[in-house]
Request: fold
Amino acid sequence: MEQRFLHHPCRHLRHDDLTLSVFLASLAGSRGPTRGPSGQTAGESAAASDADVRTYSRGHAYRDGVSNFIAFAIILTTAATLNKAGITSVATSAQAAEALRPIAGEFAFVVFALGIVGTGLLAVPVLAGSVAYAIGEACKWPVGLSREPGKATAFYASLGASTVLGMALTLTPLDPIKALYWTAVINGLVAVPVMVVMMLMTAQQRVMGQFTVNGWLRWLGWAATCAMAVCALRMIVGWIVGAPA
Reply:
């Protein structure tokens, strides 16, 4: 499916392709909690120097560029291996490891296991951290991984609870691959109104201070917002009207 979508993105779109477009857009736009320099919130970042913000922006752009390249490489790899072999439904990590077999041979599962461990270590500050930041900021708690646990007890408690909940999900009959897929799709739908509000807020000086977004960066932000909205709208219309199966 991914190969056909890459070669002919506008032809013969099926319902799965429309959902996949929201999934990919969600992955491209979601890379964990976006914080200011040194993990600051928007209000704290207002006091940051212009050099600090520029340094952080370059690092953020580099991170997103590399992560999107890796995601694209994964799509190509699985399309050229699993899809070619007729495996179109991946339900376990063992099936996902098969994508590495043409390159790693018998060591495919070892390489995949190392990747899973590395991903798990990254998931704690990124995924569980996103939940902790969201809950903490909504409840107006002191938040930030740069804070000592004693000065942000509720924040770290939320972080720990999110991690434990994620571990507990592995003991349930829930399909982890499908759960990740549909979580990203839902995130893509929710991202549209969030991005609209974000673009409106970043244009207001009373919110952003000296760091208001304008010029080409503002146009780029609205372009990304419109692209996400189009993907989500096409998927919803496909559900209602009924795209080809």
